[in-house]
Amino acid sequence: MITFLPHRLRALLLPALLGALAGSPVALAQSLAVVVAKDSKAPPKLSADEVSAIFMGTAKSFPNGEKAVPIDQKAGSEGYSGFYQKAAGKSEAQMKAYWSRIMFTGKGQPPQDAGDGAAVKKLIAANPNMVGYIEAALVDPSVRVVAEIK
Hints:
The protein is an alpha/beta fold. The chain has two domains: 1-28, no CATH class; 31-149, Periplasmic binding protein-like II (D-Maltodextrin-Binding Protein, domain 2), CATH 3.40.190. It has helices spanning 7-22, 25-28, 48-55, 78-87, 92-104, 117-125; strands spanning 32-37, 69-72, 112-113, 130-135, 143-149. It has a five-stranded mixed beta sheet, with helices on both faces. Mean pLDDT is 85; it is low at 1-5 and 12-28.
């Protein structure tokens, strides 16, 4: 609580501060689910390191050997920024620089951009080798959650 301000000023500032925070990306960030198609042969669960390796291009398959094709949400979206900040510890600008370097050296390509969470879910549900991240609220029986990013 803001104790160094007089009560009257605190009563005016606190609601304004909370309102500003409610509109910030940090406050709006929701948990993300890493998903595969319901009939995918991917393992039931992936560790944070395994998810990071797949999306950073250092792993081309799931731990069980099945091919893994990562699918991104649109760069600049809250889902994209939140995912890479939490899963890889990198900002959107750092990810852009990372993929520029990887592509320049011929060592890989970034994940395919599929749009928003709903578009990612639709694409993942139809392709058993694909893996993507969506807002947890979008999870339905067409996909299977293999990891949670909070």
